[in-house]
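Q: what sequence does this backbone want?
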């Protein structure tokens, strides 16, 4: 991880958003623009090219955390600029308006208010914490680019920028207190904070060429609004719910819940990411992990939305300090969670029981469906499949089975089949086993899409 520190020469900040409000905490896109300007000032391609590559990596990373001093508005009053103009066509009407002495005296019809508000800071240091790893040459180029940045905010905010490499554990172990606080990013379509995207760099370059370039065909073009080239964010000081781990499984909380009809796509994305990152296999053998959707389910009033992603080992895995250990696999899932945009129908998460790993584990001999089970559309085949799977995986028998294809509760909605074109049906089941098992328990087909998860203990009926 990188920590990019801004050391202001004085404890004040004048950066503003387009609406004139103070840009506090400073937008990540503002940091990216400052570093890009510094990179373009580097005289040597040996440093400039790696610096630009580093900025591309940063722009593709998750939104950063921000450690900032406490701040309050300075309440600086607005100033006024003259709103005069020259007519395109000289007519009696336009010339008469131009020669009106009110233009010269700046009456209320010709002046425009210009916001000047700023923030008073408790100290002069602000830190962006970026989850990205850079090669040595790119890191050195980024440091040289940071050294070329003269101010951060507006021109009356002189500052020095430095770049340091830190360990993730150290970042989470040192939460600022006292006169400092940590801001956490949230993706939201209504966010007023500009986050970075890979295309943000292209927008900055295009805007610079239009404003300062010598090509008349470019400088005569209208400006391009930034909205399509930035990631809308909001920042607040409430930390996300922490990942919880037990001896049997780990549950990584989502930033916002995912409605039922989108759960299978989420779990498929996580499973694919684990495979692509090399986290889901040990020595090229069978997958080391299975994922499941931690859903709000099990009660007649639960709605089945997903609030977290569960990870459980299929078999013995390598120690935690290996490339496929529990901590590294959880980190892959956490990166996906941070990079996901809010979906329609999503809601805030306030620590439901589904985020507790013990919610999904036994030992227990009585289990019932939390998510639909995909299986052959015949009850006899379903029973045989379960008997074989339970005997092979857990060494227990199936003493009683109740299955149905009709939902009874709100959380038992049918999920879209998506790209699963196997023709299987969706079932809700209740199992009684010959002996308790620990779980988590997932059965049937499509488990890599979140299907077939079971709750321990008694039925919601």
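A:
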């Amino acid at each position: 991880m990188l920590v990019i520190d801004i050391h202001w020469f004085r404890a004040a900040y004048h950066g503003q958003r387009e609406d004139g409000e103070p840009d506090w905490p400073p937008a990540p896109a503002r940091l990216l623009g400052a570093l890009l300007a510094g990179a373009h000032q580097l005289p040597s391609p040996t440093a400039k090219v790696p610096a630009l590559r580093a900025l591309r990596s940063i722009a593709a990373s998750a939104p950063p955390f921000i450690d900032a001093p406490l701040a309050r508005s300075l309440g600086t009053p607005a100033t006024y600029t003259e709103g005069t103009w020259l007519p395109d066509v000289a007519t009696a009407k336009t010339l008469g308006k131009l020669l009106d002495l009110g233009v010269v005296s700046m009456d209320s019809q010709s002046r425009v208010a210009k916001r000047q508000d700023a923030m008073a800071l408790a100290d002069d240091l602000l830190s962006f914490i970026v989850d990205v790893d850079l090669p040595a040459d790119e890191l050195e180029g980024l440091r040289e680019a940071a050294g070329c940045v003269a101010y951060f905010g507006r021109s009356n905010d002189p500052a020095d920028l430095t770049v340091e490499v830190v360990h993730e554990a150290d970042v989470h172990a040192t939460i600022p207190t006292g006169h400092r606080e940590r801001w956490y990013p949230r993706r939201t379509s209504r966010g007023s904070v500009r986050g970075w995207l890979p295309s943000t760099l292209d927008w900055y370059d295009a805007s610079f060429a239009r404003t300062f370039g010598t090509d008349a065909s470019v400088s005569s073009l209208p400006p391009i609004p930034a909205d399509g080239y930035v990631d809308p964010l909001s920042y607040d000081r409430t930390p996300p719910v922490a990942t919880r781990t037990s001896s049997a499984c780990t549950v990584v909380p989502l930033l916002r819940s995912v409605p039922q009809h989108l759960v299978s796509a989420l779990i498929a994305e996580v499973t694919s990411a684990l495979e692509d990152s090399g986290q889901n296999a040990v020595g090229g053998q069978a997958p080391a992990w299975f994922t499941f959707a931690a859903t709000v389910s099990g009660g007649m009033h639960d709605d089945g939305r997903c609030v977290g992603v569960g990870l459980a080992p299929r078999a013995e895995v390598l120690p935690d300090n290996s490339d496929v250990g529990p901590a590294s696999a959880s980190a892959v899932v956490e990166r996906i969670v941070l990079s996901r945009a809010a979906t329609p129908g999503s809601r805030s998460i306030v620590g439901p029981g589904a985020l507790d790993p013990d919610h999904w584990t036994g030992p227990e001999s009585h289990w019932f469906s939390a998510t639909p089970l995909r299986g052959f559309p015949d009850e006899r085949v379903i029973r045989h499949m379960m008997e074989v799977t339970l005997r092979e995986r857990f060494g227990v028998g199936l003493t009683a089975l109740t299955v149905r294809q009709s939902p009874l509760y709100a959380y038992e909605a049918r999920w879209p089949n998506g790209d699963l074109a196997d023709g299987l049906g969706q079932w809700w089941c209740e199992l009684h086993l010959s002996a308790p098992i620990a779980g988590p328990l997932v059965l049937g087909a499509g488990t890599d899409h979140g299907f077939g998860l079971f709750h321990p203990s008694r039925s919601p009926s």
